[in-house]
Design a protein that fits this description.
The protein is mainly alpha-helical. It is built from 14 helices and no strands.
Length: 440
């Protein structure tokens, strides 16, 4: 394939790409607009503490991944995927209508319930999202397809957060936010009508609606297939690593860099664009093949640039504390530029790390189990993101600073890379072979 972007013009991929991108976009527009309102206009919504609500509300969005992922995986293996996607998009329209009433009536209960339901929407879409690709792309196109999906998702998340924050700050925020999220949902459904049919791999499957027993069953099944299990752990670690960094970007910008919202948006934008670039580069660097060597190269870069990012931000903090009145953008030397370069390279390495792992799940899972593999992966991802929050709180309780948290996370990343090579020597062999070929 000359360029992965060629897939965007093809019906088997284009409508699906834009549908999933708009879903991620709408998730973040709504979630960010709600949290912005809770943070800055708490009194108009509730008598509860705004900081506590801003911390708890994202948990409502993650909770459905634990409750319904197992069932979502079974549904995606049982039913035709394009119809399932359209059902999910219709559900999104209904949720956004409900959320609009919540915004206009200033009902925090309705808005919190809508946030939970959007988590349900994302939970149902997740297994379809990644199991759709192997049914419509050739094996040598999976890296390109996954790269585009990851790029689109991170750009959609970024744009959604920017738009959501802006909508939440408007005087007529309730009206404009309600109209915006409803329009995005309708657009997603319209695009989903062009997604081609995907025959269900196991239509005879009997859905087990008990999330506990089905999750245990899936874990046992994929534990027996260590290649898949180790890949799921590796993907979940990426979300732990990313969640640890991204959750602290606002506090880093405000309390460490002594900057403004503009600095936070810059960090978030550069990281997201970096992930997108790394994701798309995977197709070129792997030449369309499944290349696990990129996972180890990405992991190495995440540790190196994560450690340097921690070191640079720590130095910047010390300089600003030692020279009151000095600002981030007037620091001597190139500390500011070096910090932003580290963030960009972190994102690029993250893209190189994550895409081959999704390709591995899709290409090595049995066709009748692909959606359930992705569902198990989503449960693990959600668990690791929750653990990330607990990890950060624990270290902050021990007196660790934000730059030190980043440094510790970068060191833990080395241990995870060693674990991957120990459990699956294929990762180490692949990176050695990859470097040997490129060294010629």
């Amino acid at each position: 394939m000359k360029s992965p972007f060629q897939l965007l013009s093809q019906q088997r991929f284009g409508p699906f790409f834009w549908t999933q991108g708009l879903g991620a976009f709408n998730d973040n527009v709504f979630k960010t607009a709600l949290i912005t309102q809770v943070a800055f206009n708490t009194a108009s919504l509730t008598t509860l503490d705004g900081k506590m609500l801003a911390t708890l509300l994202p948990g409502l969005f993650i909770l459905p991944f634990f409750l319904f992922s197992a069932s979502a995986g079974q549904l995606a293996d049982k039913y035709e995927k394009s119809q399932l996607i359209r059902w999910v998009k219709l559900l999104e329209i209904g949720i956004m209508l409900f959320a609009g009433i919540g915004f206009l009536s200033r009902s925090l209960v309705m808005l919190a319930l809508a946030l939970f339901l959007m988590g349900v929407h994302s939970t149902l879409f997740g297994p379809v999202k990644y199991s759709y690709l192997p049914q419509h792309l050739q094996v040598n196109e999976l890296t390109a397809g996954n790269g585009l999906v990851e790029m689109g998702s991170f750009v959609a998340i970024l744009l959604g957060q920017v738009l959501g924050a802006w909508l939440g700050s408007l005087e007529q925020h309730a009206l404009f936010t309600s109209l915006s999220v409803l329009l995005i949902a309708i657009s997603g459904y319209h695009l989903s009508r062009s997604i081609p049919l995907s025959l269900p791999p196991v239509p005879e499957i009997q859905v087990n609606w008990n999330p506990v027993t089905e999750t245990i069953k899936n874990v046992r099944t994929f534990w027996a297939q260590q290649t898949l299990w180790v890949a799921i752990v590796a993907i979940s670690w990426f979300w732990f690593f990313g969640a640890t960094l991204l959750a602290q970007f606002p506090n880093l910008a405000k309390h460490v860099l002594q900057g403004t919202e503009r600095d936070f948006i810059s960090l978030l934008s550069i990281f997201s664009v970096g992930v997108g670039i790394g994701s798309v580069w995977c197709e070129k660097l792997s030449k369309g093949k499944q290349e696990l060597g990129l996972v180890m190269l990405g992991a190495a870069g995440m540790s190196v640039f994560g450690w340097d990012f921690a070191h640079v931000t720590g130095d910047i903090q010390q300089q600003l504390l030692a020279h009151p009145g000095l600002t981030l953008h007037r620091l001597p030397g190139w500390s500011d530029d070096r910090m932003l370069l580290d963030v960009a390279l972190l994102g690029i390495c993250g893209g190189l790390y994550i895409v081959p792992l999704y390709v591995l799940l899709q290409s090595r899972a049995q066709p009748g189990y692909q959606s359930r593999v992705i569902a198990s992966n989503n449960i693990m991802n959600a668990l690791f993101m929750v653990l990330s929050a607990g990890f950060s709180v624990m270290l902050f309780g021990m007196g660790v600073s934000i730059p030190q948290l980043f440094g510790i996370t970068a060191m833990l990343n080395v241990l995870v890379a060693i674990y991957l090579c120990w459990r699956q020597p294929e990762y180490w062999v692949s990176v050695c072979n990859y470097l040997r070929v490129w060294g010629r």
